[in-house]
Amino acid sequence: MALIAVIDDDPDIIDASSIVLKSKGHSIISATNPNDGYKIVVENKPDLIILDVMMDEPDDGFYLAQKFRREKINTPILMYTSISKAVGMDFNKSEMVPVDDFVEKPITPDQLISKVEALLNKKKENV
Amino acid sequence: MSVEIKENNILIVDDEKGIRVATQLLLEDEGYNVISADCGEKGIEIGASKEFDIAIIDLKMPDVEGIEVLSNIKSNFPNTICFITTAFASYDTAIEATRKGAFGYIPKPFTPEELIYNIEQGLKQRNLLLEAERLRKEKEEKLLEIANEKSRLSTIIKTINDGVLVINLNGQLSYFNYAALRYLNISDFKIGDKILDKMPEQIINLYQKITSAEKFLIKTFTTQIDILPNNELCIEAALTPIANPDGSLAGVVIILSNITQFKKIELIKSQFVSMVAHELKTPLSAVQGFLNIILDDSLKLNEEKKKEYLQRSLIRLKSLCDLVNDLLDISRMEIKSKQREIVDVIINDVIDSTVNFLEIELKKKKISVDKNIQESLPPIKADYNEISRIFINLLSNAIKYNKDEGAIYITSHQENNFIIIKIRDTGIGIKPEEKEKLFNEFYRAKNEKTRNISGTGLGLSIVKKIVESYFGKIEVDSVYGYGTTITIKLPIN
């Protein structure tokens, strides 16, 4: 089972996601701002990061993801977004954003589990 | 026998009394208005006094020759028909008279029929002359009008804010105004210069599309061009083909409009929409997340947990509802600025009724309100609901972000032409770096102390909008951890 870091400024989202992931036997660490998020990742070296795009500032999630990659922290990142198609943003072209997958909120437990499993399996293959 | 009255005026110039009188009587009998002169000098004088239709002039007079009288009349009134009469008819004098402008030559003695026939012919000729002159004048006026119109149009086109230029089929500039060069950020061009290559690519492409089309179509093609980066200058170019008189393509008219402001507004609008979408979707996602895990039997949540998540969902839905109400307030305010109900508003009354309105919330947190207000402040001219909204939002914040059993201090006083209201709370305060963002739409200070306080992030931005729409000022002063003071200055007039 894996250690997953959930970084989102909405504690409700963290709790709901945690319950789903814990039911599959994963362990969860969480943070509600980019600074704490950076810290828990560096200190605990999780297997997967779930990161919200918009935290305090609209670009926070992007910046944090870029910071991880700059510092050679190549942990897979699943990015939560809550706006994209509605305002014409297409996050699926991930050239500028160094993340492994996107998922648009709201997300069902099944979706979350399958995305997470897929990324964890990919990580195992790479290793 | 009644005689038809004719409008025509005839002048007779003859020194021979018998002929003069007989001719006058004859013509008057025919219905003409006749004036006669008994010598050349008088003939010139009367002939110059007004325009006659016909002049009958004797060639040989003792003082002035008939030819001279003729020249005089003709120089003043070229359309007067002149006849020369003489007893000494000769080929030479006839030619001379005709050269000086005589219409006919009537040898004396003449019969009444001969005279009347000549006069009728003369009148026909005069009508032709008058008609010709009328047409000529009309034409001259039209030409003048066209010239005026042309210079007027060119002045209009030169001064309008839109850029206008015409490029012919050779890619040469055949007409332009200065706005066009300004928008295209080019200079030093004159008519006839090859300009197509200097155009932005989008314009060249559309120009080629129009000029290479097989069929001539009156259709306008538009394109938007960023002349300067970062939305500093953005224009819309509209290209329309123009035709020669034979219907073939002559060139392309390009109208350039400055749409920089529209672009900026569009950007602000789409940013606002994306912010609203995000703010609406966030609580919905949380609620959906909770409901999903409550309904998922495989997660095996106990009743207590389920209840907790339903409670939390309810809180999120309540805040979502507040947000929708605030958004409605904003849109109402934007409409309202056009249809405000301006009345005398007494600030102290608004403060009192707002405190009453919030009594339940105040009691819940056991917060005391201490008012120190200057009595008999002058009223301000404003919309009551808008002023009330200011105090509801500010006092709600003073309660929400206060500590339990805290206090709110409200003071009001007049300073010159302003009413100054201060609302101080003993709450969590604001960090210095959060202060400048405080009035931004959807901004909420996020820290360990605000985590459990719900809000839309719109309250203060609404307050600021209202205060500024009345030319007032809002200031915030705070010590983090100890409380916040909001100062409102509203002009009395």
- The N- and C-terminal alpha carbons of chain B lie at a distance of 91 Å
- Which structural class matches the secondary elements of chain A? alpha/beta
Form type of chain A: globular
Radius of gyration of chain A: 13 Å
Low-confidence stretches of chain B: none
How would you sum up the global shape of chain B? Answer: elongated
Please bin the fraction of helical residues of chain A. Answer: 40-55%
InterPro entries (chain A): Bact_response_regulator, CheY-like_superfamily, Sig_transdc_resp-reg_receiver
Protein name (chain A): Response regulator
Modified residues (4-aspartylphosphate) (chain A): 52
Pfam families (chain A): Response_reg
In short:
Chain A is α/β, with parallel strands linked by helices. Chain A is built from 4 helices and 5 strands; from the N terminus they run βαβαβαββα.
Can you walk through the features of this model?
The complex is a heterodimer of chains A (127) and B (493). Chain A has 4 helices and 5 strands; from the N terminus they run E-H-E-H-E-H-E-E-H. Chain A is of the alpha/beta class. Chain A has one domain (3-126): 3-Layer(aba) Sandwich (Rossmann fold), CATH 3.40.50. Chain A is globular, with a radius of gyration of 13 Å. The relative contact order of chain A is 0.17. Chain B has a 5-stranded parallel sheet with strand order 2-1-3-4-5, with helices on both faces. Chain B is built from 14 helices and 17 strands. The relative contact order of chain B is 0.05. In chain B, 46% of the residues lie in helices and 23% in strands. Chain B is of the alpha/beta class and 493 residues long. In chain B, helix 2 (40-49) packs parallel to helix 3, helix 8 (260-295) runs antiparallel to helix 9 and helix 12 (384-400) packs antiparallel against helix 14 (459-469). Chain B folds into 4 domains: 9-134, Response regulator (Rossmann fold); 160-258, PAS domain (Beta-Lactamase, 2-Layer Sandwich), CATH 3.30.450.20; 263-338, Signal transduction histidine kinase, dimerisation/phosphotransfer (DHp) domain (Helix Hairpins), CATH 1.10.287.130; 340-493, 2-Layer Sandwich (Heat Shock Protein 90). The chains are: A alpha/beta (127), B alpha/beta (493). Chains A and B meet through helix 1 of A and helix 8 and helix 9 of B. Chain A: The modification 4-aspartylphosphate is found at residue 52.
